[in-house]
Amino acid sequence: MKDYVITLMDEKKYVQARKELIELNAVDIAEILEEIDTNNALLLFRILPKDVAVDVFANLSNENQKYIINAITDKEIQYIMDELFFDDMIDILEEMPAIIVKKIIKNTKEEERRLINQFLKYPSNSAGSLMTIEYVGLQKEMTVKQSMEYIKKIGIDKETIYTCYVMAENRKLEGIVSLRKLVVSDDHKTVEEIMEKGVIYVNTYEDQEEIAHVFKKYDFIAVPVVDKEERLIGIITIDDIVDVIEQENTEDFHKMAAMEPSEEEYLETSVFTLARKRIFWLMALMISAIFTGSIIKRFEDVLQSVVALAVFMPMLMGTGGNAGAQSSTLIIRGMALDEIELKDVFKVIWKEFRVSSLVGIILSLVNFIRLYYFQSVDIKISMTVCTTLFIVVVLAKVVGGTLPIVARSLKLDPAIMASPMITTIVDAVSLFVYFSIATRFLGIA
Q: Kind of pairing, strands 222-226 and 202-203?
């Protein structure tokens, strides 16, 4: 489709190109605009029907949104901002440079401008920054018939109508009622009679990761957001939480790879920025490797006495690091899914001890057969290597399973205790255990 649209554009068949595009979903149109050059993308965007253009704009990358805002007229900006859902507009404004934000806000209505400024004051990862004001609010005195007429009147401009929120006069949230319940209830019943009380809600300053857990736990499609007085301020819908989950997962992957998290796309991020976000952890891990070097120096006489020991150091350190990384990855993911809590630390230690013992025995036996029977390595050295391997695997898995929980208890992100950090710790432990056992097994003074 993209090539066909480009061909139509080259042949100046704009009407036909427009006809082909409007048959597609807004997301697919946005993907096509992302893949063609900016001049053609802008031209295509401007020939789209206005209602379609708004949906397409919401799905474009920040870079293309900036380009379009700079290129179109104030009247066109005003139309787009008026038609966008409020939370989508806030998301766009949060990513735009100040000069673009000023241009957008200049073309919004005074009441909307006040709300935008209020929303932009919320922390970037809070419920307040995610919520939308486009919800259906009902009064508990309203009848079912009045409620349905009200929804028909204002529902077209709301982000969701499937859950309606019941408020008292002071906007205090008192309950919720589903559209299904309204449809099947008697017209003369009041909203108060059919609403559900004991509503699950989140506070405006609650962290987005906690909100994602609420959605997952209760299978919500929307959740209300209240202030300190429990007055309804807005709602958060499932489409925003899907974006949050993707963002949080990406952030965890970055931390697990020992990088500072970034929300920018890889190809759009400058080399300097990428280097800056990687250098800190690489520097910290490099400096921490000094401990590994000091251990080798401390046991230098052991290495000089039995040079063959050096051959097995990479294998022991690598296996230990891999074993620890396996455990830490499982525990970090389990904690992210709320499957593992702080109180489960001893259960984790006991389970990882049993798993690592089984794995360590198998690896050590296989390694002993390889060294002693196939490579004819001295029996004492073979025993030293295999005993070390068993101990290292056990320690690595227990440490790898425990450190993420310790990090959470210290209010740190468990993801920082992932592969690079575990590997650095296990390397030092592996060498210390290795040389300590070699000193005793081989009788080196």
A: parallel
Task: Pick one of 3.40.1010.20, 3.80.30.20, 3.10.580.10, 3.30.390.50 as the CATH number of 137-237.
Answer: 3.10.580.10
Given phi > 0 = left and psi -120 to 50 = alpha, else beta, which region is 371?
alpha
Q: What tokens appear for 432 in the block?
A: 């210390």
Instruction: Show me where the domains of the chain are located.
Output: 2-121, 137-237, 289-441
CA distance 349 to 21: 57
| 411-416: Cβ within 8 A, 24+ apart | 413/252, 413/255, 414/331, 414/332, 414/335, 414/336, 415/251, 415/252, 415/255, 415/256, 415/332, 416/255
pLDDT tens over the chain, length 445 residues:
667 777 777 777 777 888 888 888 888 888 888 888 888 788 888 888 888 888 888 888 888 888 888 888 888 888 887 778 777 777 777 777 766 776 777 777 767 766 776 677 788 788 888 888 888 999 888 999 999 999 998 888 788 889 999 988 778 899 999 999 999 999 999 999 999 998 999 998 899 888 988 988 888 889 999 988 888 988 998 888 888 888 777 777 777 766 777 767 777 778 888 788 878 777 877 777 777 778 888 888 777 777 788 889 999 999 998 999 899 888 988 887 788 988 999 999 999 999 999 999 999 999 999 999 999 988 999 999 999 999 999 999 999 999 999 988 888 888 777 767 788 888 888 889 998 898 888 776 5
The CATH-assigned architecture of domain 289-441 is Orthogonal Bundle (1.10)
Hey, do 2-121 and 137-237 end up sharing a CATH topology, with the first three levels equal? no
Collect all residues with Cβ–Cβ distance below 8 Å to 318 and sequence separation of at least 6: none
Instruction: State which fold the 2-121 domain adopts.
Output: MgtE N-terminal fold (1.25.60)
